[in-house]
């Protein structure tokens, strides 16, 4: 097992490098870099996209001919000012040198500072992380607590009326987009048109620091109740059907019939024999599910509930072309995702020690 883990760890290096190279190359072809953003604000366009859309009165403002060193919309600015901006952002160096410098800094865990927020990337990520942890942790936990018992019950009562009507609810839940369900929750329970039960802004109340420990916990869950419900809806449906199908596959196998023939009770057969094998794929995928919800949180849900998490951070960084934030968070999330992939494989061994990846590879 040690050799397998070592190979997987060594594989992380070229995989991570490939991810960074591909994204760095793609960014070079995307118009509207940070210098263009600053120039657009100086020219009064608001952002660089106004220039590309032809929003400027100048005929040359939205274009740059091949070989022209002038940025789009920058013809009225002194060349010395543009050169100074390039030095500040590091764009006076060729792309290969910029990439190598960036990766060398990342290896040393130096992720730089945001171009437009005057704050380190790590500090910025840590600032947004409580929201993402809240959504990821509680959404995953809630999905598993509901889906596993429900999926087992549906497998045991397969074909009954219980299985039929719960399947109908699951299909409807899966078909509803998370953001649409979030709006529905706002309308019903956050003062939209009916009841004002839950707040619609922030992770905690303004007076949270003045509350005692019990009130703080209550206030925290009061604020995240609706966002978690909205972000759990689709994961709950998928996980329930996965659990049901896994149990149905195991229940039909010969070892289950043998256990029943020995006179074991149905609960002993179900939870003593079937459960470990059926839950292998469900439990082993727990780290991946959590990380998926944690880093892939819905930007729309965060926006609807006024939550400032990593989802909104990534979107705003992409719009503003804040390259340190874009590449810093990409490096961190890719690294964590690759490590979690290894942890997911190890979870298979924890759940079922009979699995040996080294023999499978051999």
TrEMBL record:
The chain crosses the membrane at residues 9-30, 133-152, 164-189, 220-243, 278-305, 325-351. One of its GO terms (cellular component) is plasma membrane. CDD domains: TM_PBP2. SUPFAM superfamilies: MetI-like (SSF161098). GO terms for biological process: microcin transport; transmembrane transport. The keyword Cell membrane applies. It holds the Pfam family BPD_transp_1. Its main location: membrane. It is found in: Cell inner membrane; Cell membrane. Keywords: Cell inner membrane, Cell membrane, Membrane, Transmembrane, Transmembrane helix, Transport. It is a multi-pass membrane protein. InterPro entries: MetI-like, MetI-like_sf. PROSITE patterns: ABC_TM1 (PS50928). Belongs to the binding-protein-dependent transport system permease family. This is Binding-protein-dependent transport systems inner membrane component. It comes from Mameliella alba.
């Amino acid at each position: 097992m040690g050799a397998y883990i070592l190979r997987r760890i060594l594989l992380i290096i070229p995989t991570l490098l490939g991810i960074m190279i591909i994204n760095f190359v793609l960014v070079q072809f995307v118009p509207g870099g940070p210098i263009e953003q600053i120039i657009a604000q100086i020219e009064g366009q608001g952002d660089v996209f106004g220039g590309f859309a032809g929003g400027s009165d100048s005929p040359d403002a939205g274009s740059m001919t091949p070989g022209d060193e002038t940025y789009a919309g920058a013809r009225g600015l002194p060349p010395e000012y543009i050169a100074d901006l390039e030095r500040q952002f590091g764009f006076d160096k060729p792309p290969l040198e910029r990439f190598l410098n960036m990766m060398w800094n990342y290896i040393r865990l130096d992720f730089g500072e945001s171009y437009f927020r005057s704050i380190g990337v790590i500090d910025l990520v840590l600032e947004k992380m409580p929201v993402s942890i809240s959504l990821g942790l509680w959404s995953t936990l809630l999905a598993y607590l509901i889906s596993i018992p429900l999926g087992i019950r549906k497998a045991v009562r397969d074909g009954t009326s219980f299985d039929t009507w719960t399947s109908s609810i699951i299909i409807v839940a899966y078909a509803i987009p998370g953001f649409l369900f979030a709006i529905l929750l706002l309308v019903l329970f956050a003062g939209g048109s009916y009841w004002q039960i839950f707040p619609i802004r922030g992770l905690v109340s303004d007076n949270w620091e003045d509350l005692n420990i019990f009130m703080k916990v209550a206030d925290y869950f009061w604020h995240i109740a609706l966002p978690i419900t909205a972000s759990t809806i689709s994961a709950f449906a998928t996980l329930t059907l996965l659990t049901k199908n896994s149990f149905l596959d195991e229940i039909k196998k010969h070892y289950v019939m043998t256990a029943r023939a020995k006179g074991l009770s149905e609960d002993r057969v179900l939870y003593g024999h079937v459960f470990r094998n059926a839950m292998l794929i469900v439990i082993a995928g727990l780290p991946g599910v959590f990380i998926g919800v944690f880093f892939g949180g819905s930007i729309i849900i965060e926006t609807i509930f006024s939550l400032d998490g990593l989802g909104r951070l990534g979107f705003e960084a992409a719009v503003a072309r804040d390259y340190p934030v874009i590449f810093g968070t990409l490096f961190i999330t890719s690294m964590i995702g690759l490590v979690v992939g290894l942890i997911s494989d190890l979870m298979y061994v924890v759940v079922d020690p009979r699995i040996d990846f080294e023999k499978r590879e051999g």
